[in-house]
Structures are given as C-alpha cells and as structure tokens.
Amino acid sequence: MSTAPHLFFTYPSVRRFRAAERVALTLPATLRRGRSLVRGHSIEVSATGAVLQFAEEAKPAEDAPRVTSGPLLMTVELELPAQGQIITALGRQVWAEPGAVALSFVKMADADRLSLAELVDGERALDASEE
C-alpha cells in the first residue's frame, strides 16, 4: 500500500480552515460507516482531524449516519501502538477520493484528544529536530 504522496498537505483551500496543522503519521485505522468496516492507516493526523488511506475504496453504507441533509459522519478508531491505546472519534467527511478520506473530528473523549495531541506534538518536535 503506497502512502499516497499526492495527498500529503494537499487541498490548500481546506488547509486554511484547519484548527490544527497535521503531521505525517502512520497509525493503523478502522473506519466505521453504519455497519460497514474498512481498515487502513492514517497519512496525516492532528488533534482535530486526519487523512486516512485504505487498500479498498471506502464506500458510504446505505445506513451511514448523517446529520439531516448535512455531511457524512463516521466513526474512526486510531491505534496508538506505542501507548497500546485505541482512540475513537466521530468524524465529518471533509473530502474523499478512491481509497482515501479526510475527516474533521467532531466528537472525541477529552482523554483521547489529549493523547492524540501529545503524540502529534511529539512527532512535530521530532520532525523539527531532524531539519
């Protein structure tokens, strides 16, 4: 599975609306849409959203939850292997293309958001020290 470099920090019109800058980070991910389940990994992550990539195309399920005439909502689980922790978030689809989706997290436990923010900050500091 490639890391889809064409997705890395693309869509500049969307970038300016992000609450937090994303970092390149590969974490095992599971996307749930209704009863559909798709496994893949993250490409970019922040405490407020993520870009996920899948081996198979993530197709919306007929029973995927939606806000009335609004955006597609789905649950994502990100595995933080070093911490042995799985965080769960409700995400709003920002964009999608075959095999990839960008989510903005709309609901997440405070402890999960903190764990994710600490991981992202650590990666950002590591990237800065390598430059």
What attributes characterize this protein structure?
single chain, 131 residues, alpha+beta, Thrombin, subunit H, 6-stranded antiparallel barrel, 2 helices, globular, disordered N terminus
Give a quick rundown of the structure.
The protein has about 130 residues and is of the alpha+beta class. It is built from 2 helices and 7 strands; from the N terminus they run αβββββββα. Helix content is about 20%, strand content about 40%.
Please tell me about this protein's structure.
The chain is of the alpha+beta class. It has a single domain, classed as Beta Barrel (Thrombin, subunit H). The chain has two helices and seven strands. A six-stranded antiparallel barrel has the order 2-3-4-7-6-5. It is globular, with a radius of gyration of 14 Å. The chain starts with 11 loop residues before the first helix and ends with a helix. The relative contact order is 0.20. The N terminus is likely disordered.
Describe the protein's topology.
Elements lengths: L11 H4 L7 E2 L3 E6 L2 E11 L2 E6 L18 E8 L4 E13 L2 E9 L1 H21 L1
Antiparallel strand pairs: 1-3, 2-3, 2-5, 3-4, 4-7, 5-6, 6-7
